[in-house]
Amino acid sequence: MLNKIILSLFVCMMFILLSCTQGESDSKYSKADPNQTNIQHQQEKNLDEDQITTPPEKKEEPAPEPEPEIDTLSEEENLKVTFIELGSKGCVPCDMMQPIMDEIKSEYPDQVKVVFHDVRTKDGYAYAQQYKIRVIPTQVFLDSEGNEFFRHEGFYPKEELLKVFREQGVQLIGS
Fold it and tell me: Angle at CA 80, nearest 5°, toward 155 and 116?
């Protein structure tokens, strides 16, 4: 009985860990004709996971450069950290991060800017390339000058986020 429980937990953990990683084995494009793949890429609005690290072979127009996150930072004097979440809707760990991001937005609106990019969309894909992410979710932390000072891959508990914020001078609630 105990072995069955342990096996079940192991299978669940593997599912969660592998649900948002890239892999050739589950890719619907892995055995497709390259010309057909390019046509499918152009027709679909959402991008597959494997495109996060492997851009399409041909592009008629270069992707527009995403607007830098630091443009709005100069206007907000109290802003200490920009917390960028790169993930996707439907990804289990990414969905688990959503309530945490909402809490951070409401608890620290003047000190922390929270940004979410769905990297499986055409607009979000540009950010996946800009930040050179390998897996989703990935959290990127920028200081008040717009420089990346920390990065994390996978689910990131709120307690750990708060430690990162504290190191950058964010006045935590209850401190």
Answer: 40
